[in-house]
Amino acid sequence: MKFTAEQIAGILEGEVVGNPNAEVFKLSKIEEGSEGSLTFLANPKYNNYIYSTKATVTIVNNSFVADQQITTTLIRVEDAYQAFSKLLEYYNQVKLMKSGIEQPSVISENVTYGENLYLGSFCYIGKNVVIGENVKIYPNSFIGDNVTIGDNCVFFAGARVYSETVIGDNCTIHSGTIIGSDGFGFAPQEDGSYKKVPQIGNVILEDNVEVGACTTIDRATLGSTVIRKGVKLDNQIQIAHNVEIGENTVIAAQTGIAGSTKIGKNCVIGGQVGFAGHLTIGDNVKIQAQSGISKNLKDNDVVQGSPAFGYTDFAKSFIHFKNLPKIVTEVEQLKKKNNNI
Q1: Residues 310, 303: contact at Cβ < 8 Å?
Q2: 174 part of the active site
Q3: Which of these, 241, 252, 320, lies nearest to 286 by C-alpha position?
Q4: What is the DSSP letter of 103?
Q5: Using CB atoms within 10 A as the burial measure, which of 125, 235, 264, 302 is most buried?
Q6: Which residue ranges form the domains of the chain, and what is each CATH number?
Q7: How confident is the prediction along the chain (341 residues), in pLDDT tens digits per residue?
Q8: DSSP notation for 42-81
Q9: Which UniProt keywords apply (predicted)?
Q10: Distance (Å, whole) CA 308 – CA 281
Q11: What Å distances lie between residue 209 and 97, 132, 167, 242, CA to CA?
């Protein structure tokens, strides 16, 4: 797909300096620009690259002043970084602009869906599913019985959504994600075996949630596992049954959250964090990567370590952790000296 400098300037409300008919069909970094590519210059540290870049079109700030000859066509805008971000969003929308129902695919009885549905090949839609408008479900995806999906949602290839799940508007579910699988519930028996406890709840994703690839969100034993609006989940996260995650919380990859833990809103959680079950985590909490959370945390806590404790205390203690062999040697020497007195 090709765009001219004039077309791009129209989208960005910018001004073309150079050839308005210059065509681009790909994006690049300014230092890696090649013929047919579009790039941008926002950081003054990269100014020297604009004189050597082979990019066909470059977005620059209105304040940019060239002191050498430039071969690339410029598009002048108020803020080059924001303009390029807007263009990336537009490009992504165009790239994902698909509609229609491909075959083979299965749509079961009593399914309703809104306008502009895209259903890729080899998808399965279960009974009594309700799908909103402008929803895109890419190939090899599964939507179970009685699922409700809001408007403007995207399910990338191979997404799995189990029965009874409720998904709000503007949600994105990446490939390999499983929503609504059974919670890990087993009752120990007298003979040492385990009997599975039926998991009859569901999962609720509110509006504007994004779930990364290969993340698993388990259905509740009873009631709902709830992911509140605006939550962003990275790849390969495990969320157990009856967990609740508050609004606009972000969680990095490989984090595991055990059953019935409640996490507040606006929290920032690093990668590979482990949560014990039945905890309450306050609002605006920050948890550093690889921390182990075994107790409740108050609003605005910042913690690190396993088990985690205050971040400032951890940073101070880490100095002593590194010097522990030296400290032990010094203590032993002091003990010997004391014994000789």
Answers
A1: yes
A2: no
A3: 252
A4: S
A5: 125
A6: 3-95 (3.40.1390.10), 100-314 (2.160.10.10)
A7: 789 999 999 999 999 999 999 999 999 999 999 999 999 999 989 999 999 999 999 999 999 999 899 999 999 999 999 999 998 888 877 777 788 999 999 999 999 999 999 999 999 999 999 999 999 999 999 999 999 999 999 999 999 999 999 999 999 999 999 999 999 999 999 999 999 999 999 999 999 999 999 999 999 999 999 999 999 999 999 999 999 999 999 999 999 999 999 999 999 999 999 999 999 999 999 999 999 999 999 999 999 988 777 878 887 877 777 788 888 888 888 888 777 76
A8: -SGGGGGGGGT---SEEEEETT---SS---SEEEEES-HH
A9: Acyltransferase, Lipid A biosynthesis, Lipid biosynthesis, Lipid metabolism, Repeat, Transferase
A10: 13
A11: 20, 16, 9, 17
**Cross-strand bridge partners of residue 196:** 186
In which residue are the tokens 């609003």 written? Answer: 299
- Alpha carbon distances (Å) from 197 to 220, 241, 279: 11, 12, 21
Peptide bond into 198 cis (omega under 30): no
| Contact predicate 311/304, CB 8 Å | yes
Residue 152 CB neighbours (<10 A): 19
* Distance in angstroms (rounded) separating the CA atoms of residues 162 and 151: 19
Predicted TM-score (pTM) of the model is: 0.81
Contact between residue 136 and residue 156 where contact means Cβ atoms under 8 Å apart: no
Tokens at 7, concatenated: 């077309």
Query: Count of alpha carbons within 13 Å of 149, Cβ hemisphere only?
Result: 33
| Contacts (Cβ under 8 Å, ≥6 apart) of 159 | 137, 138, 141, 142, 173, 174, 175, 176, 177, 179
Sorted by sequence, the CB contacts under 8 Å of residue 317 that are 6+ apart come out as none
